[in-house]
Amino acid sequence: MNIHIQNGRVIDPKYGLDTVADLYVQAGRIAAIGSAPVGFVVEQTIDAVGLTVMPGIVDLAARLGEPGGEHKNKLQSELKAAVAGGVTSLCAMPDTKPALDQASLVQMLRQKTEALGLAHVLPLGALTRGLEGSELSEFAKLSAAGCVAFSQADAPLADTRVLYRAMQYAATYGITLRLRPQDVRLAAGGVAHDGQVATRLGLPGIPAVAETVAISTIVLLMKDSGAAVHLERVSTREGLEMIAAARAYGLKLSCDVSINHVHLADIDIGYFDSNMRLSPPLRSISDRDAIQHALLDGTIAAICSDHTPVGNDDKLLPFGEAAPGATGLEVLLPLVLAWAEQKHVPLPQALATITSGPAALLGLDAGQLAEGAPADLCVFDPHAEWTVTPAALKSSGKHTPFAGMALRGKVRYTLVGGKLVYSEQA
Amino acid sequence: MYNPQLNRHGELIHLLSTEGLPARILRQILDKAAGYVAAGEAGEKKHADLAGKTVFNLFFENSTRTRTTFEIAQKRLSADVHSLNIQASSTAKGETLLDTIHNLEAMGADMFVVRHAESGAPFLIAKHVKPGVAVVNAGDGRHAHPTQALLDMYTIRHFKGDFQNLTVAIVGDILHSRVARSQIHALTTLGCPEVRVIGPKTLLPRDVEQLGVRVFHDLQQGLQGVDVVIALRLQNERMNGALLPSANEFNQFYGLSREKLALAKPDAIVMHPGPMNRGVEIDSAVADGQQSVILDQVTFGIAVRMAVMSMLSEARA
């Protein structure tokens, strides 16, 4: 289908493009920006006056609930949520039941998601078998089956030697490991950031050193093994300082943060609001400010949704018993826009954290608007205000720290591979 | 900030924490309790404040003393009292906390007295009960034990008159103590100019000074010139391990002995929320000594709990 997206504000974070222009889509790719290619026959026109046209969002971490959630048809609900949020490519976390640790499971996930024809799903392989932390998964076979990287999710590794071996083995194949930096023993029993709020509320704390000790171990093992590592969901100021130093030293180290941690801090727990029960925990205001700063100086390459649907039975519990996690796919874009507005971040720079930034980490040609790039696009109304109403979310996950909040920015059209997969009229 | 404990008239509708309660409410509770104490001394034990009201005591965690004193207080106020030991019943069958609450509401509950191992559990319950149903926190995790703190305030006021010129020291395991947190908030709200916490670094929560207390690691320094000494219970499972090497070492450095108590003011009173580990956080010579008001605390506890529950039943819709 040849699509003409007319008169939108076209933003391409990768090339710093920000202009009102027409965009032409042909054969699943971006054919031209500006004037129509020779011989272009318009089959569908999208009026984008007053709307912003950007590359589709690339999300480094979302939980789709499959394998394991088939009976609830979760794959479909979560991928509908993705395209409703303008997300066109997402990494599926491997902490499913069973864990994504076999090529056959990966193939099945890919087949099912391709059949749905919504967002592209990039599987993350389980770093260890069953995510049990001791035996490595078959990295090479899983990569061949389509895994883009390997992650241990929030599960601990048995010991430092497994981590060391995993790095050496991954380095053999040039595979990037994704690690959630958390020393499991220092974090044991904790449910909130170990600070003033946890002290006041009597919540067992997860100290910042649980993260920094893990990062220091990872950095030392990287130097030794030559492995490339991407740190998932960094949450502390000191951790970010260590990452910046390691990057300056020349290590192949990158990191992301969740959108929740860009906006929130432990103080937002209020009176034990279990919607604020997240992993990593919401840290101090100083940590949150450091995250915002590190997004600007490039230490953090990407903001992810860390989308985690949690059911009522697991969330309507006392804070410490509630399952960590929040739904995120449908609020990611407006929350990035809110951050940009509050901190006066130029829009192309802010949007890079959810497009070209994560795409570069994954080696994708998505996340940009170059001629010939895949026509994965998000067209949104930057002025549309809406209130986050959990029941109205398409995701099966209804719990979010931002419930009831008025946000600005609503996705109107999402295209994946040149196909319109989501549209919502104003 | 929205306060789940007060209605729009500023009246107490739940007692969840001493934090966030204005001094006016705390004094009102203490004054009302004084009325019950006086009535009791005059031989008038039974009152009709809760006549016709159905109260459920929900103890998701074991307790003998707190539960008993709540039951006595409820019966003296003529309530219909039902005590449930929850570990043995519904949650073991997979029923969630809120399912349990909604079922008991359907049976006509007017008030829940809740003890739970998780910090914040009574807040969750208070958020989900019908309007007019009151929740009393009888101890949640490490967070709060407001009726204990209030009876401690009553005891301090009884023996010391007021809080304006007092120095109060809380000694021992502050980290795991809901009692200490509730005492600190109550004392600072009531105008106590100096609250000290004394303990080793493993038993003090991070940034505890932000609660408005002075931190001491040396008991002998910390006890200098204090008017009130509160020893906290050290749980058995914390006596040996990475938090503390032994109960014996703890007793030697942080246990209240007669010699150490001599550093406090001569008329200092000694309190303990109970149950005591004699020879660990407090020596028998101190617990049973002239300065001990530990049994007075227990007596006043009933009147304070009566006052709280009566006030809750009076709040306007």
From TrEMBL, chain A:
PANTHER family: ALLANTOINASE. Residues 53-238 form the Dihydroorotase catalytic domain. Residues 244-422 form the Amidohydrolase domain. Keywords: Pyrimidine biosynthesis, Zinc. SUPFAM superfamilies: Composite domain of metallo-dependent hydrolases, Metallo-dependent hydrolases. The lineage of its organism: Bacteria, Pseudomonadati, Pseudomonadota, Betaproteobacteria, Neisseriales. InterPro entries: Amidohydro_3, DHOase, DHOase/Allantoinase_Hydrolase, DHOase_cat, Metal-dep_hydrolase_composite, Metal_Hydrolase. It comes from Chitinimonas taiwanensis DSM 18899. The keyword Zinc applies. One of its GO terms (molecular function) is dihydroorotase activity. GO terms for cellular component: cytoplasm. This is Dihydroorotase.
UniProtKB/TrEMBL annotation, chain B:
Residues 164-311 form the Aspartate/ornithine carbamoyltransferase Asp/Orn-binding domain. GO terms for biological process: 'de novo' pyrimidine nucleobase biosynthetic process; 'de novo' UMP biosynthetic process; amino acid metabolic process. InterPro entries: Asp/Orn_carbamoyltranf_P-bd, Asp/Orn_carbamoylTrfase, Asp/Orn_carbamoylTrfase_sf, Asp_carbamoyltransf, Asp_carbamoyltransf_Asp/Orn-bd. L-aspartate binds at K93, R178, R233. The keyword Magnesium does not apply. It comes from the Bacteria. It holds the Pfam family OTCace_N. Carbamoyl phosphate binds at R65, T66, R115, H145, Q148, G274, P275. GO terms for molecular function: amino acid binding; aspartate carbamoyltransferase activity. Pathway: Pyrimidine metabolism; UMP biosynthesis via de novo pathway; (S)-dihydroorotate from bicarbonate: step 2/3. Belongs to the aspartate/ornithine carbamoyltransferase superfamily. ATCase family. Heterododecamer (2C3:3R2) of six catalytic PyrB chains organized as two trimers (C3), and six regulatory PyrI chains organized as three dimers (R2). This is Aspartate carbamoyltransferase. It comes from Chitinimonas taiwanensis DSM 18899.
